[in-house]
Amino acid sequence: MGIFSFFSKEKKEVLDKGLSKTKESVFGKIARAVAGKSEIDDEVLDDLEEVLVTSDVGIETTLRIIDRVQKRAARDKFMNTAELNMLLKDEIAQLLMENNNGNGDYFDIPEGVDKPYVIMVVGVNGVGKTTTIGKLAHQFKKAGKKVYLGAADTFRAAAVEQLVEWGRRADVPVVKQGMGSDPASVAFDTLSSAVANDADVVIIDTAGRLHNKVGLMNELTKIKNVMKKVVPGAPNEVLLVLDGSTGQNAFEQAKQFTKATEVTALAITKLDGTAKGGVVIGISDQFKIPVKYIGLGEGIDHLQIFNREEFVDSLFG
Question: Cα–Cα distance between 306 and 301 in angstroms, integer?
Fold first, then answer.
């Protein structure tokens, strides 16, 4: 399935609507910052810096963008502020590309990977982690994959119940044990069932509490080691789910989880209804981890593959 098939007119409309508050906030501020100016001077750059920082792009990433815009303006002799949107669009897209944000078909299994493809999902409670797992299961199922879910967040009974409900909605099996069970045991049972039933994809939920980093690291390491006994090389992916609407708190969560385990991909949720969509740019840049998915609404189809061109187009369109 080609990557552009995921950006039908309907999906583009969902993306545009989901990012509308960020677009209105950020670019309304930019328009006010450059109003009446005839060139990209130090004052314009200072105002632009303030806009990006207050839009949760993050200080370090903002300074990097400003530096690139300044050098590009000098090199290409773009002096008119009317060119500023184009400069920003190009430089942000380039930054996302440099940080390994591709435009791949992430609802498919990478070539050369043996089945089942195992995704371990991490993140604090309340960020939309279990919901993201359910939506991922739905999308993989739509792509023709046989999917198994593992309810290894045994710390909260509600987490298991929620995953079971999402399994029902996505029509995929959920492997679970009782509350308080060993999460690694749940992961072992899930992978064993998946292998026995020739599953294509396994998604493992994990506890969403940010207890001390040593405890978190030990628990996640134990789960990973147990999974390797069933599927060598598992997990193929460690997906960190972050709530985009929390802005700078999402940065802090990313910092904690990347210290506790090797995160290989990001899903940033709840971008609809917030003006903090700039956090996608900053987190990608600061942690050098590709954003694979973005959440743009409550609907089961509202988890989209992150496509840098479409994302930047929606912000600057």
Answer: 14
